[in-house]
Every structure is written in structure tokens, then in C-alpha cells.
Write a structure and sequence with these properties.
With 170 residues, the chain is an alpha+beta fold. The protein has helices spanning 3-11, 25-32, 36-45, 60-69, 88-97, 101-161, and strands at 14-17, 20-24, 55-57, 84-87.
């Protein structure tokens, strides 16, 4: 498996829902090369392994928003069952439930992708902080420059108001 292709494919299946990075049951089933129904049955047989911070079911509003924003989920529009979302820990727990070689290989790739996303997020946050510092510094310098220019303009108005030339004496 080409690791870059896999990570790119996996990262396109990671969404932020309820403030958590998650993957949907249908995407995981596709990656694991099993039916979504089979994946969900395996989860239900081992439900104690999947507390609410590992897995949750989307509500109707979340499902409709997903269908609206992502064309590839249009088949969910008329589905009576809302999909399940798995956090990183939930995806990891799936490895203990699904024991095929494909599941193990895909799970490793998923974990690496989550790790890369976290690393990217750290660098992004660091970069954002640096940009804000530069903006603050530049803003301060801009204000100082603006003040100096304003003072020069005011001084030039005083100079312009002085009469230059000869005063006619009577």
C-alpha cells in the first residue's frame, strides 16, 4: 500500500463533529473492505469497548448537514439509520474487534494519519501565534509611524501659516 495515497485518502474521510475529529462507519467499512452493516454488528457485539467518547451516532441535524455539505453522502439522505462516528480512540478500538489483515494494515495507516494531523495542527497553531505577534509588532510600529507623520503634517501646517515675503509699511 502506498502510504501517501492511503494517508491522503484517509485524511479526506476525517471530519470534525461535536468538536472531535471523527471517521464515519461507512468510510471505515470501505477502508476495511467490509460492509457497513458487518462493521456495526461487530461494534454492537462489543459495545462495552465503545463508550460515548469513542463512538457516537449522528443525530438527524448532523446527518442532514453532512448530506448537504458532502455530495458523496447523498445516499444517506433517505436512510432511516443515522451513521456512527468514531473518534481516534474508537478507530483504534475497532482494531481489536475486526481482526483481518486488511483491518490491521488500515488501522495502522489511520493512526499514522491522525498523528500527522495532530503534528500539522501543532505547527499551524505555532505559525498562527507567530503571525499574530508580527501583526501586533507591525501594528505598534504602524501606529508610531502614523503618529510621527501626523506630527510632521501638523508642523508643516504651522510653517505654511506664517506669512512669507515683504510686509508693506504704510
Amino acid at each position: 500500500m502506498n502510504e501517501l495515497v492511503v494517508q491522503g485518502e484517509i485524511s479526506s474521510h476525517i471530519f470534525t463533529l461535536r468538536g472531535k475529529e471523527v471517521m464515519l462507519d461507512r468510510d471505515l467499512a470501505e477502508l476495511y473492505k467490509v460492509n457497513t452493516k458487518v462493521l456495526n454488528q461487530a461494534v454492537k457485539r462489543n459495545i462495552k469497548r465503545f463508550p460515548s467518547d469513542f463512538m457516537f451516532q449522528l443525530n438527524a441535524v448532523e446527518k442532514n448537514e453532512l448530506v448537504t455539505n458532502c455530495d458523496r453522502f447523498k445516499t444517506l439522505k433517505h436512510s432511516s439509520i443515522n451513521p456512527y462516528a468514531f473518534t481516534e480512540q474508537g478507530v483504534y478500538m475497532l482494531a481489536t474487534v475486526l481482526k483481518s489483515d486488511v483491518a490491521i494494515e488500515v488501522n495502522i495507516a489511520i493512526m499514522r494519519t491522525f498523528t500527522k494531523l495532530r503534528e500539522f495542527s501543532k505547527h499551524y497553531n505555532s505559525l498562527a501565534k507567530k503571525i499574530m505577534e508580527v501583526e501586533r509588532k507591525n501594528d505598534k510600529q504602524y501606529k508610531e509611524l502614523s503618529k510621527a507623520l501626523e506630527e510632521l503634517i501638523n508642523e508643516s501646517k504651522v510653517v505654511e501659516s506664517k506669512t512669507i515675503g515683504f510686509i508693506k509699511s504704510e
